[in-house]
Amino acid sequence: MGYEPQKDFGTPASRSSDMVTLTIDGRDVTVPAGTSVMRAAAEAGGEIPKLCATDNVKAFGSCRLCLVEVEGMRGTPASCTTPVMPGMKVKTQTPKLDKLRRGVMELYISDHPLDCLTCSANNDCELQDQAANVGLRDVRYGYEGANHLGKAKDESNPYFAFDSSKCIVCSRCVRACDEVQGTFALTVDGRGFASVISAGQKEDNFLGSECVSCGACVQACPTAALNEKSVIEIGKPERSVLTTCAYCGVGCTFRAEMRGEQLVRMIPNKDGKANHGHSCVKGRFAWGYANHADRILKPMIREKIDQPWREVSWDEAIGFAAAKIQAIKAESGPRALGGITSSRCTNEETFLVQKLIRAGFGANNVDTCARVCHSPTGFGLSNAFGTSAGTQDFDSVEDVDVFIVIGANPTDAHPVFGSRMKQRLRQGAKMIVIDPRKIDLVKSAHIQADHHLPLQPGTNVAVLTSLAHVIVTEGLADEAFIRERCDWDEYQDWARFVSDAKHSPEFLEPVTKVPAQTVREAARLYATGGNGAIYYGLGVTEHSQGSSTVMAIANLAMCTGNIGRRGVGVNPLRGQNNVQGACDMGSFPHELSGYRHISNADARALFEADWGVTLDAEPGLRIPNMLDAALDGSFRAIYIQGEDILQSDPDTHHVAAGLAAMDCVIVHDLFLNETANYAHVFLPGSTFLEKDGTFTNAERRIQPVQQVMEPANGYADWQITQMLANAIGCDWNYGHPSEILAEIARLTPTFSGVTWERVVSGEPLQWPVNEKAPQGSPIMHVDGFVRGKGKFMVTEYVPTDERTGPRFPLLLTTGRILSQYNVGAQTRRTGNQVWHDEDILEMHPTDAENRGLKTGDFARLASRSGETTLRVLVTEKVAPGVVYTTFHHPSTQANVVTTDNSDWATNCPEYKVTAVQVTPSNGPSEWQTEYADLTAMARRIETMEPAE
């Protein structure tokens, strides 16, 4: 594939359905009403010179390069700000225009260094291209340079540099920061030739500013003023491959731009249905982990976990693992074996892992990270609606009138979608935030929520029931929708329940800590404010009442009629790139792909016929049950692909004990992670850049992952799983992931219309894709719920078993930060470390003062389960009595203090509510010191002897 930049049409597309025909340079052109003359010319195959215009921001009309002549119109209007009119006759190339454009370009060039041959943007520079387009051959004005402005070069950001001497002050970067990202970090200082782009005050730089390094400004810059350091170092790319980001569940698509085998840059795909040409710091820049020195590229084995690792060949490693598995199976039966699939890997790889465990190992002991994040989503939504996924596509956000964001922090955890939310808020939508913390959506530059409900952690169900109480008792429910689409008798039972005085905001205020009047105002806004959409995250699911909260959210949407059309719905914001896909592929112990219960004889027969095996009809063990069974000796071997359960799962001591009790732990990953401290076999994994396959994002969109470079370890992950399967007696002969996808489609009703060819051609496919919905299903439950009638469920508030008291008077809740991702295995090995190199404990000033703590002090964080030490940040983002931290760094391992409490229906851990005490500390906890010693011992490697 050659390198061809994506076409820039100059101005955004019009959404009008009315069409207008005009004549441009003698050719008839038909475009939607509201289209600019510039875009109309581009869509017809022409090109009008431009510098300040680009199609991801609104027209600006400042550079005066795009002038045209229009019959009957005075002067030479800017084509970017001139809308098309029926019968309009436009000329884009005339002697008069040529002269004007050359004059304009001459002024730009006069303030720009003519060092094209040594410039990093040589042959990739719009200024250079447009100078050629207008035929500029001479410059009459001398260049004085921009260094006198005092901010010549800013290299503070780890990923890009700003050279103001190359800047033409077209304002594209400023507008991209405002309109696309919504951060407003950039501005233009000064006037005329003295004007310059600034990231804040004169003394500020890009790193210290409010810039979130999303890359929108770099993407918008037409010169080398803003340029990736990787381009400066490596040079212009020569080819590109379309692929999908492997970070969060938004599912941004990118053009991976290559020079030979080197990845030069990741450019967000303008045609990406989830991101529309935008990106965040992680997807855009934090891909360097793929080449990090810590990456393990050779298989390793050891008999005992206190021994050093020994590098071996692939054959020896696979043979060693297979022998262990077969011996344990012979001694203890298939139910002593199990595995964990990865939400980082492709659908095809995940499908093979669960197939290996069910068909190869012979039991259903398979689980995935959704167990510890969104398993209540699957349970709650499938009960209420009949499907266990979000109801809307991301574009639906454009029609939302009232947002409820509960237990989610989109600007940090799902930043590209968070930017779209901010755009919609600035257009006039309303926002209700239900969260113990003041997240950015509560109040930040240029946006503010209408209501913030700072609830006590653990009281989600009580808050949602009190919102429902107001809607029902004040007659705000949508009775027509309920009678038509839901079970009326069940609704009446539920309505009686929520109408009880003990569920009123006033009665529950002492429990939730949310002022009753705020609850009432928020409920009225959601019920009467137009299209209402609920977006939620792990702050909903990671509770002992996670499933109840999801059901309560579904109740709220149904009772107000906010389901089944654009701009409404119930939308879980999935954390990992393919956690939706991992669930779809049958990664739970009780479900085959497509969410069919393992006890369903017809579903099982379908797989048995295809796979040529007999499947166990009994659901297998969940992750916590596997660890419990390991401690009692009945579960002995586990295959873990792309998941670090020691750092990410709750109650670290319990996880460590369970892993240490097993006879064979196989870790298949990129790095020697924390779980690998307890492993006997390490199989080096491949990154998303080194494989083909598909990911499914939070809106059920199935998107292509395409190989950009050869796997540094020698194999894609699906090939490694296939080698292990064949070593234990399976006869698999897949030659490409497209063959696995064909098997998925054959066995999974929601995927029956999905093919590799359709995916890579760019078709927008959101499951279900089948005979009923051959083009996919952007909006779910349009004409009726999948289950038939929507089901209202009574959700009684049951306080968590985790209580504060004299010993542990504070409540700890946890979350993510923008620059780091999950357990940090990837992002900690990139330039993102500059923003967040340790986990920090946020405390309210009152709580900090009571303990003699100030920002920067070390503090001991202790619970009934364990203790750790970390630095304090004193902030009013958290309420009194609540503390908050992230879980990105293994040196802290916040989960050493979390408990084994979990959701009543799914075992999803209660990460968000832990009773703790915080006291001053002068160093690491005893556990941290012991763990550092264990890690150093567990990562010793004896390298392979070179072959004779």
Automatic annotation (TrEMBL):
Ranges of residues in domain 2Fe-2S ferredoxin-type: 18-96
MF GO annotations: 2 iron, 2 sulfur cluster binding; 4 iron, 4 sulfur cluster binding; formate dehydrogenase (NAD+) activity; metal ion binding; molybdopterin cofactor binding; NADH dehydrogenase activity
InterPro entries membership: 2Fe-2S_ferredoxin-like_sf (IPR036010), 2Fe-2S_ferredoxin-type (IPR001041), 4Fe4S_Fe-S-bd (IPR017896), 4Fe4S_Fe_S_CS (IPR017900), Asp_de-COase-like_dom_sf (IPR009010), Formate_Dh-H_N (IPR041924), Formate_DH_asu (IPR006478), MoPterin_dinucl-bd_dom (IPR006657)
GO CC annotation terms, alphabetical: membrane; oxidoreductase complex
GO biological process, one term: formate metabolic process
Residue span(s) of domain 4Fe-4S Mo/W bis-MGD-type: 238-294
Residues of the 4Fe-4S His(Cys)3-ligated-type domain: 96-135
Keywords assigned: 2Fe-2S, 4Fe-4S, Iron, Iron-sulfur, Metal-binding, Oxidoreductase, Repeat
Presence of the UniProt keyword Metal-binding in the record: yes
Domain 4Fe-4S ferredoxin-type: 158-189, 202-231
Top-level division of the source organism's lineage: Bacteria
SUPFAM superfamilies reported in the protein's UniProt record: 2Fe-2S ferredoxin-like (SSF54292), 4Fe-4S ferredoxins (SSF54862), ADC-like (SSF50692), Formate dehydrogenase/DMSO reductase, domains 1-3 (SSF53706)
PANTHER family: FORMATE DEHYDROGENASE H, RESPIRATORY NITRATE REDUCTASE
Similarity comment text for this entry: Belongs to the complex I 75 kDa subunit family. In the C-terminal section; belongs to the prokaryotic molybdopterin-containing oxidoreductase family.
Protein's UniProt name: Formate dehydrogenase subunit alpha
Native source species: Alteraurantiacibacter buctensis
Lineage: Bacteria, Pseudomonadati, Pseudomonadota, Alphaproteobacteria, Sphingomonadales
